[in-house]
Design goal:
There is one protein chain. This protein has 230 residues and is of the alpha+beta class. It folds into 2 domains: 126 residues, no CATH class; 94 residues, Homeodomain-like (Arc Repressor Mutant, subunit A). Helix content is 45%, strand content 16%. A 6-stranded antiparallel sheet has the order 1-2-7-4-5-8, with helices on one face. It has a two-stranded antiparallel ribbon with strand order 3-6. Helix 2 crosses helix 3 and helix 7 runs antiparallel to helix 8. The longest helix is centred in the last third of the chain and has 18 residues. The chain is globular. The two termini are 23 Å apart.
């Protein structure tokens, strides 16, 4: 069973998932975010995805706990550019000193509520980090459907400069981020019962066929199958 709540860290979400007994692999869709994870006494980081990430085997069993960071904020907290973790899941020991990770592992293992302990860790890191305020403007503009060139102009950035900063913050360039955010807009509309043709128009696709191609490319399934009605 999956559950989430708003985090005390601005823009973040705290979630738990106990998928035991679920048939088939899980599917994590691209959303522009990175996650700090706790699973089987191990701290991990999920980098930004460009395609659906399938969970299977040991990864699909047992309780998972995570903090999902707002797009562009995790690299400053973790101390690593997002593009180095693109489409990857790595143990935190690959990013931080082993002695520090062991201390944090013991702390979370001994906590009455691992989810809150993980959130506390994220809050502590955030206190010493200062994400670039322009990044939130990039996300807001692209999520509103503003073209990449217009977004760069509005922020006073050149195309190459925006691309470099996007790689470090989001793990990929602004065009890919725009595609991922558009996918999430479309899924929210379709899940709310909006007809697919209207979903395509409202989310910013050229037409329903364009929506179908993008969903299959990024999510790996047709839209109807993805939503469970196909």
């Amino acid at each position: 069973m999956y559950a989430e709540r708003a985090s005390r860290l601005t823009g973040a979400v705290v979630w738990t998932n106990s998928p035991a007994g679920r048939a088939g692999p899980g599917r994590v869709l691209p959303d522009g975010c990175m996650d700090l994870l706790w699973h089987r006494d191990t701290l991990l980081v999920a980098g930004p995805d460009t395609q659906a990430h399938l969970t299977a085997g040991d990864e699909a069993h047992g309780r998972w706990t995570g903090v999902r960071f707002y797009p562009g904020t995790a690299p400053a907290l973790l101390g690593v550019p997002a593009h180095e973790l693109r489409d990857r899941r790595v143990e935190l020991t690959e990013l931080w000193p082993a002695t520090e990770v062991r201390r944090l592992t013991d702390r979370i293992r001994g906590a009455a509520d691992p989810a809150r302990a993980l959130e506390d860790l994220a809050l502590e890191r955030a206190a010493d980090a200062a994400p670039d305020p322009a990044l939130a403007q990039v996300v807001a503009a692209l999520d509103a459907g503003r073209p990449v060139a217009a977004t760069a102009d509005r922020l006073g950035l050149g195309a190459r400069q925006l691309h470099r900063r996007s790689l470090a913050a989001f793990g990929y360039g602004p065009k890919t981020l725009a595609r991922v955010l558009r996918l999430q807009r479309a899924l929210a509309l379709a899940r709310a019962g909006v007809p697919y043709a209207e979903t395509a128009a409202r989310a910013g696709y050229a037409d329903q066929a364009h929506l179908a191609r993008e969903v299959r490319d990024l999510a790996g399934l047709p839209l109807g199958e993805l939503l469970g009605d196909g």
